[in-house]
Design brief:
alpha/beta; Rossmann fold; 2 domains; seven-stranded parallel sheet; six-stranded parallel sheet; 43% helix; globular
Length: 375
């Protein structure tokens, strides 16, 4: 079979949706190499991570035809090229599909990562909300199959777009295989020295924005064992200023370390040296950082209210995202009880096996093969 993929994220995003797109395509090509995998994009960002992905000869990079206008090609002109390439199934990997795909022989799939703009509209500009809603609704109504990355996202699709449940399949994500291998001690030491990491630290990874709720973790740190610092890895947005003000107010300047622009190759080691991973986000589509932490044998504390229990499993600890005292108590219980930490690590590792690469790829291929024939 010939599979086509929207390559906008795979070819240009080094985190988030880019990682999801590259991982999905790579997994399929690894386990179902008898098929052809074509990735459509109008441009490619030059980075080590993206260049390495496209160096795989099993993955074909496809650009617009010379006669196409690249701005419109991804939404409109691509259909003609897909037909010319005799694509069997086209997968929109980030909440949208091209227009006009309802007609013709090509089956269409869309991955819906989340509909957070409905849950937290104040975090998005009005025009952005309109665009996201238009594209997501169109994709859900016109694709032959919807892939939701969590049961929570599936329920949101049903609630906001009134889509029949049988049209939606939940296929969880996995993380990059580098997080599933324990880094060598020498490499960990070099990473610790490179970023001046403390011997004992709590870790948080994610964009510093209101939804991720870093402020709660900072407030909790006031009551967390004083010999542990907080390491925050992520891109700062305007909300970061509020976080820094709270750090100063609480006198925690010496206990909070911010890291940004961390090479992807260093991140697994940063996870694996942490004592606890904390993810107090108000709302997520799934929560890949939790998977990365569990594979790295790190106990996880996360927030209730969205899908994080699906990612973290029954052995992780979940707290109210508005309660810093309960969060501090949860962290301290792990730090002070090696038996509890050991149990959480062992059960967490068992839980994330359902997200292993082979299983996720098999589930996705099964979804592809069971799309009803086009009328």
């Amino acid at each position: 079979m010939k599979f086509g993929f929207d390559g906008k994220r795979a070819a240009n995003n080094e985190t988030g949706l880019g990682n999801y797109s590259r991982a999905l395509i790579s997994q399929l090509s690894d386990f179902f190499h008898q098929n052809q995998y074509l990735v459509y994009t109008s441009k490619v960002k030059q980075s080590r991570q993206i260049t390495s992905f496209f160096s795989d000869k099993r993955i074909q990079l496809k650009f617009p035809n010379k006669s196409s206008t690249s701005i419109l090609w991804r939404s409109f002109g691509i259909k003609r090229q897909l037909q010319k390439d005799k694509i069997d199934i086209f997968h929109g990997l980030s909440n949208e599909i091209p227009f006009g795909m309802k007609t013709g022989k090509i089956k269409t799939v869309v991955t819906i990562h989340d509909l957070i703009f409905f849950r937290f509209p104040k975090n998005y500009k009005f025009i952005d909300r309109q665009i996201y809603n238009f594209k997501s609704r169109y994709a859900c109504e016109n694709a032959d199959l919807i892939i939701a990355i969590s049961e929570k996202t599936k329920q949101d699709i049903i609630e906001f777009y009134q889509i029949a449940p049988e049209k939606i399949k939940v296929v969880y994500q996995t993380c990059d295989d580098s997080f599933k291998r324990q880094a060598r001690e020498e490499f960990k030491s070099s990473v610790r020295q490179k970023y001046r990491l403390p011997q004992k630290y709590i870790l948080n990874v994610g964009t510093i924005e209101p939804r991720k709720n870093l402020l709660l973790l900072v407030q909790a740190m006031k009551n967390v064992q004083a010999d542990h610092q907080l390491v925050v890895v992520g891109k700062s947005k305007a909300y970061a200023q509020l976080v820094r003000s709270e750090i100063k107010k609480l006198g925690l300047e010496d206990r909070v370390i911010f890291l940004k622009d961390i090479p992807f190759t260093d991140l697994p080691a940063i996870y694996q040296m942490a004592a606890v991973f904390v993810y107090p986000s108000f709302y997520e589509g799934f929560g890949i950082p939790i998977i990365e932490a569990l594979y790295g044998s790190i106990p996880v504390v996360a927030a209730t209210g969205s899908c994080l229990e699906e990612a973290g499993g029954p052995a992780s600890i979940y707290i109210d995202p508005n309660d810093p005292v309960t969060l501090a108590n949860a962290i301290n219980s792990i730090l002070s009880r090696p038996d509890l930490a050991k149990e959480m690590i062992e059960k967490g590792l068992a839980h994330v096996q359902q997200f292993n690469t082979a299983q996720v790829a098999a589930e996705l291929m099964d979804c592809y093969l069971n799309i009803p024939p086009k009328m």
